[in-house]
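Supplementary Methods, section 5.1.

A reviewer requested that the exact input to the structure prediction be made available. We therefore reproduce it here, unchanged from the version used in the analyses.
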Amino acid sequence: MASRALHIYDLTTLASESASISSLPGPQVLQIEPWQRRESALRFMARAVACMPNDAGYACSSIEGRVAVEWFDPSALSQARKYAFKCHRQPSSEGVDVIYPVNALAFHPVHGTFASGGGDGFVALWDGVGKRRIRQYQRYAASVAALSFSRDGKFLAVGISPGFEDGKEDTADGIVKIFIRELGETEAKGKGAK
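The structure derived from this sequence is encoded token-by-token as follows.
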């Protein structure tokens, strides 16, 4: 099992400390301690991490087809809101779920919802506060490797490439493409709490 340690750094502190030693002569070593040290809520290796646009928290995904949503505020009340859920799983003909890694996460800059992309070739939109899936898009021809919203949230870029989720490592070169999806005004808007 991979290490489940998460180290969270305050980038403002990191930038100011870096600036303070840059004027000193000779090579300098910057030793910054993490703002927080945590153990991931996920049991297996992390694949992607994305911060919420309001800087309140983050989502983390793993190779076991799960996503965890957590908040930076270390208070017990805030930490009680964290949760994890299963996703990117497909039923097999034997009646057992095939579990795919969640390779990519991206938060919508306006609505605060997020997208996940998996080894199953699907992209799903999630309402992290409402704890529900908003929609799932049509399957892509290969594993989703990367996701990114435009700054205004009107477009979602989806990068696909062959993965080894099917266990075949000796496959020929596969499809590598980037798709740009234009989103409707409310397409990525959360639905609210259940």
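The first strand starts at residue 5 and ends at 8. These observations are discussed further in the main text.
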